[in-house]
């Protein structure tokens, strides 16, 4: 054990003398710390703004004066999605999906106001989040530090001298791995502080531990790979060129290939095609604003028979409100069917893309990180489903007030004059129907279950690289 520490200490002494290695280590730590600080401040500020806007939206809704209830259906309401505690480390798809959604009757709107929609093309490569730094930049910086770990000993002729002194090749390899992995611990220290801050905001300890260990394993995979390649090559130039090519392929090229291939394998209809399909299906339901639509003749007959009256004017409820309520229920079933199909396609795309993680550890840690942080596509779908539940409940509450608190005759005559329009209103007390909305991600157990595949893939890469280093060590000894 002491021999490994001596080798690791000697490697650090070399790095202190090397301007490139020293500057790279400093840049790594500064970049990691800066990304954690900036992302934490940004997420905290955004959450504060969203909480304020959510409260303001609810207050604005309930403070509306007496109105016709269907006017309030179209007046609508906003919901805002707060970020999860670990989104300070990995924002995931939150930069590309909307953080707010407008709820109104007769339709399901998409979430809006994503950061990426309002950014310049300079940020398309990815936001400078701690996750991006660790997943993409850190392996490159490790290559700059460790590409010559073994190859320089070979190139300078000191490898034979060390082995002749009784040092085993395995001790040399493991000592270099230990030195390079200690750099990982320095780079990870700001990241760990960010995770501890997330824990103080309510994140599960099981998620925090798994999150940190996952990134440790990911960087260990790269450490083993760098030392193995350095041991396979006889010159620093060859080692550096090979490692840079592998980094470009694993961290940049293959993820892009995976995304493009996934889009080809799992086709998505365009928004226009989907909208036309929804509208075509909704036409079959009839016009919920027109109680005389033939689609509602059976509903009218059933109500007349139920209350044993001959005209809708004699019903104890407003027929127009009943039509609006029933129309919204049927319309929502259709909208939910299309929304479910869309979510299934997006989940299939995500699952297909994750299969490419068997080819690169970068995709394994990317999927695992988002799933643990609650910033993946499944969490976004959860927000949409919860928002739709809120939308349906508040619209149907207003339709209920329309049916029960507004006279049918008054309702149909409301445009005759200003007084009739004034009479066709209900009390503003009916707007007290909103509950304080606060989005919460999947619990720790659910997120750990969802991340099983990515955990297996990352473990697979650790085993593969450990075996690879073992084969390199055995071959070199021979």
Distance between the termini: 24 Å
Please give the share of residues in helix: 55-70%
What is the overall shape? elongated
**Share in β-strands:** under 5%
The arrangement of helices and strands along the chain is: HHHEEEHHHHHHHHHHHHHHH
The tally of helices reads: 18
Poorly predicted ranges: 117-125
Strand order of the largest sheet: 1-2-3
Please report the total strand number as a whole number. Answer: 3
Question: Averaging pLDDT over every residue, what do you get?
Answer: 89
Structural category is: mainly alpha
Write the layout of secondary structure elements.
Layout: H1 2-17, H2 19-62, H3 69-75, E1 77-80, E2 100-104, E3 107-108, H4 130-146, H5 151-156, H6 158-164, H7 169-200, H8 205-232, H9 236-265, H10 271-283, H11 297-307, H12 319-355, H13 361-373, H14 377-405, H15 408-412, H16 418-423, H17 444-450, H18 452-477
Helix pairs in contact: 1-7, 2-4, 2-7, 3-14, 4-7, 4-8, 4-9, 7-8, 8-9, 8-13, 8-18, 9-12, 10-12, 12-14, 13-18
Structure, explained:
With 478 residues, the chain is mainly α. The protein has one domain. The chain is 70% helix and 2% strand. It contains 18 helices and three strands. It has a three-stranded antiparallel sheet. A hairpin with a 2-residue loop joins β2 and β3. It is elongated. It starts with a helix and ends with a helix. About 2% of the residues have low confidence.
List the main descriptive attributes of the protein structure presented here.
three-stranded antiparallel sheet; elongated; 478 residues; 3 strands; single chain; 18 helices; mainly alpha
């Amino acid at each position: 054990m002491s021999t490994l520490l001596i080798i690791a200490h000697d490697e650090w002494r070399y790095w202190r003398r090397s301007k490139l290695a020293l500057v790279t280590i400093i840049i790594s730590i500064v970049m990691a710390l800066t990304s954690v600080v900036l992302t934490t401040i940004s997420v905290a500020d955004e959450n504060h703004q969203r909480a304020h806007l959510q409260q303001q939206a609810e207050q604005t809704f309930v403070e509306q004066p007496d109105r016709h209830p269907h006017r309030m259906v179209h007046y609508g309401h906003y919901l805002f999605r707060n970020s999860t505690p670990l989104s300070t480390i990995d924002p995931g798809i939150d930069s590309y999906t909307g953080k707010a959604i407008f709820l109104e009757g007769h339709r399901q709107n998409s979430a809006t106001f994503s950061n990426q929609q309002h950014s310049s093309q300079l940020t398309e490569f990815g936001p400078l989040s701690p996750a991006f730094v660790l997943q993409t930049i850190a392996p490159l910086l490790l290559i700059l530090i460790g590409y010559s770990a073994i190859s320089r000993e070979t190139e300078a002729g000191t490898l034979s001298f060390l082995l002749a002194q009784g040092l085993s090749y395995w001790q040399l390899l493991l000592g270099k791995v230990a030195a390079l992995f200690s750099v990982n611990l320095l780079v990870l220290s700001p990241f760990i502080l960010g995770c501890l801050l997330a824990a103080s905001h309510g994140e599960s300890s099981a998620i925090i531990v798994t999150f940190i260990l996952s990134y440790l394993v990911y960087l260990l995979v790269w450490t083993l790979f760098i030392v193995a390649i350095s041991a396979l090559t006889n010159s620093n130039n060859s080692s550096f060129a090979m490692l840079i090519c592998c980094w470009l392929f694993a961290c940049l090229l293959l993820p892009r290939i995976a995304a493009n291939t996934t889009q080809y394998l799992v086709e998505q209809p365009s928004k226009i095609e989907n909208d036309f399909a929804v509208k075509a299906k909704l036409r079959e339901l009839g016009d919920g604003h027109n109680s005389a639509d033939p689609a509602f003749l059976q509903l009218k007959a059933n109500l007349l028979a139920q209350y044993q009256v001959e005209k809708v004017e004699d019903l104890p409820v407003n027929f127009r409100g009943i039509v609006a309520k029933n129309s919204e229920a049927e319309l929502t079933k259709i909208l939910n069917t299309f929304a479910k199909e869309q979510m299934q396609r997006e989940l299939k795309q995500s699952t297909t893309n994750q299969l490419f993680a068997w080819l690169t550890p970068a995709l394994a840690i990317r999927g695992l990180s988002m799933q643990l942080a609650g910033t993946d596509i499944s969490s976004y779908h959860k927000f949409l489903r919860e928002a739709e539940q809120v939308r349906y409940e508040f619209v149907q509450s207003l339709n209920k007030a329309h049916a029960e608190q507004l006279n049918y005759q008054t309702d149909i005559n409301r445009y005759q004059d200003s007084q009739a329009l004034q009479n066709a209103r209900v009390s503003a007390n009916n707007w007290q129907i909103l509950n304080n909305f606060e989005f919460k991600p999947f619990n720790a157990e659910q997120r750990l279950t969802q991340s099983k595949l990515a955990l297996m893939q990352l473990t697979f890469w650790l085993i593969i690289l450990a075996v690879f280093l073992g084969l390199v060590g055995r071959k070199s000894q021979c």
